[in-house]
Write a structure and sequence with these properties.
Pfam family, one: YycH
Structural class: alpha+beta
Strand content: 35-45%
Protein name: Two-component system activity regulator YycH
Number of strands: 26
Number of helices: 8
Distance between the termini: 100 Å
Domain Regulatory protein YycH: 3-416
Shape: globular
InterPro entries: YycH (IPR009996), YycH/YycI_2 (IPR042274)
Oligomer: single chain
Helix content: 10-25%
């Protein structure tokens, strides 16, 4: 009997020892495991929040045509912009008819007919646009990328035209069945009756007739450390090695991927050269892969809008434009901040670039400023642009790093025909 009790006690001790060893190796539930595998790896460093692709798809501006060549512009997150866009998300558009852009005189329609335009610079692939709007399936239409949606009422004030312009610039699709009445469109247009009036000569450049009130602000910021970025991007940061570059930047590599840190610019570039060369993927699939990549490697530290740029070959060049309240932040060659850029091929991210700066919680100091409008703006545009054609203008925030935070100053960002960009700052008091 004693021998049986001894054997039972010994067996219990062995079981207890095995259980204790398991917890020492894998730690307690809810803690990070000591032993992990690449197959169950999700993320190691939380630097922001996960977001769905729908949160990045919205127009950069909403132009309202009031008739009689009167216009105004709404910007993201303003009251009327949100109201119109949220209503459109619940409407359905079906039976798309394809026609050439030359099939109508858009300048006449812009001047005479009440309606509004939604602008998506760079274009949004239809499969992504279908995630935020109810667009019927159409094999030809679904292969397009849309850079403008124009909804207006005809001359008789009864029929609604819903047009989707291809980013290629030669084709427009009209939804012959739209869940919108003339009264719906007119109500949306009426929101702009008492708003700042704008003028346009070509339907591309809209200039306010009055000064534009904005807020200059100083926001508190922090800096992501090199260690944070390594933990975020490398499966095992302990095996990375450091290479010092002559320009002062540092490169960290695990022999498969590389992370370049430019401390002076507070900027990082992550590269994965092992991109699949066979097979095909669509721009929409590559965008979804880009969003998933950021979700799994740190998250999003602010509000961004999706923009697609011209890629090379089968590469999809994805740009996420950062916003502060209603306006985007200007990324310049001298101070890299305000964008997150990715190159994706076969749903694999080969390049990921972003600022190491992030906005901290809390409000900064604010002061009211005015951007010039009317004749003052026209005069300053002539000086700033010189003989170059002006192809676009929009309000932005110019970011400048200060000792106590990041100063965001409102400016007009002016796009020139030669690809250059100039800015026009606030009125001097």
């Amino acid at each position: 009997m004693k021998e049986k009790l001894k054997s039972l006690a010994l067996a219990l001790l062995i079981v207890f020892s095995l259980v204790q060893s398991y917890y020492l190796i894998y730690q307690l539930p809810g803690s990070d495991s000591v032993i992990t595998s690449e197959t169950n790896y999700v993320k190691t460093e939380n630097m922001g929040q996960e977001q769905a692709v729908e949160q990045f798809i919205f127009p950069d501006q909403m132009v309202v045509h009031l008739g009689e060549d009167r216009h105004t512009v709404f910007y993201p997150r303003t009251t009327f912009y949100n109201l119109i866009y949220s209503r459109l998300e619940g409407r359905s558009f079906e039976n798309f008819q394809r026609r050439t852009v030359q099939s109508a005189d858009w300048n006449v329609i812009r001047m005479k007919n009440a309606g509004f335009e939604l602008s998506f610079p760079g274009g949004i692939p239809v499969p992504l646009l279908q995630r935020v709007m109810k667009l019927s399936s159409d094999p030809v239409f679904e292969g397009e990328s849309i850079n403008r949606i124009w909804i207006y009422i005809d001359d008789n004030g009864k029929k609604v035209h819903a047009l989707f312009f291809s980013a290629r610039g030669d084709v427009v699709y009209e939804a012959s069945k739209a869940d919108l009445t003339a009264q719906d469109v007119q109500q949306h247009v009426d929101f702009g009756q008492n708003w700042t009036p704008y003028t346009t000569a070509d339907g591309k450049v809209y200039l306010p007739k009055e000064n534009m009130s904005m807020v200059q602000t100083l926001i508190p910021i922090g800096v992501f450390s090199t260690e944070q970025m390594q933990r975020s991007l490398f499966f095992d940061p302990s095996i990375t090695r450091n290479i010092q570059e002559k320009d002062g930047s540092e490169i960290y590599t695990d022999s498969k991927h590389s992370l370049q840190i430019r401390q002076e610019q507070r900027w990082m570039s992550y590269a994965d050269p092992a991109v699949p060369t066979s097979g095909n993927s669509t721009p929409a699939e590559d965008v979804l892969a880009a969003v998933d990549f950021v979700n799994q490697h740190g998250g999003w530290d602010g509000s961004y809008r999706l923009m697609l740029q011209d890629g090379i070959g089968h590469m999809t060049d994805v740009l996420f434009q950062q916003y502060y309240n209603a306006y985007p932040i200007l990324d310049t060659a001298t101070f890299r901040y305000g964008t997150m850029r990715m190159q994706v091929q076969q749903e694999t991210v080969s390049l990921y670039e972003r600022s190491l700066l992030y906005k901290k919680e809390g409000s900064g100091t604010k002061s009211a400023v005015e951007l010039p409008g009317g004749a003052k703006l026209v005069n300053r545009l002539h000086i700033a642009a010189g003989k170059q054609e002006i192809t676009g203008i929009a309000p932005y925030y110019h970011a400048e790093l200060k000792d106590d935070g990041l100063q965001l100053t409102p400016v007009w960002r002016v796009q020139l025909g030669n690809g250059g960009v100039v800015t026009i700052g606030p009125e001097e008091k």
